[in-house]
Amino acid sequence: MTLYVSNGDMAEVMGVDAPSFSKFLRVAGRPQAPTESVRSRRSAWQERGYPIDAAVAFLYRHSRHFGALHETKLRELARPAAREVV
Fold first, then answer.
1. Can you tell me the distance from the alpha carbon of 63 to that of 49, in angstroms, rounded to the nearest whole number?
2. What is residue 78's predicted lDDT score, i.e. its pLDDT?
3. Nearest to residue 13, comparing CAs of 60, 46, 82, 80?
């Protein structure tokens, strides 16, 4: 089963707010992987998520501040796709 993380999860782990992380994504691009719908950790809504391995590789490639501790925290936040939960 593949686990996914959202942009909000990545922003939280990097220690920035969501709008700042969105600006970073405009400059760096987005992870080149298909997205899935995942249940939000903050509400009953669903949000788009990237496969955890693609998100980790993207952040290692594009951020000097992303390290092993950040990777561990991001992997803890990962969750399955909404359609796999049902």
1. 19
2. 95
3. 60
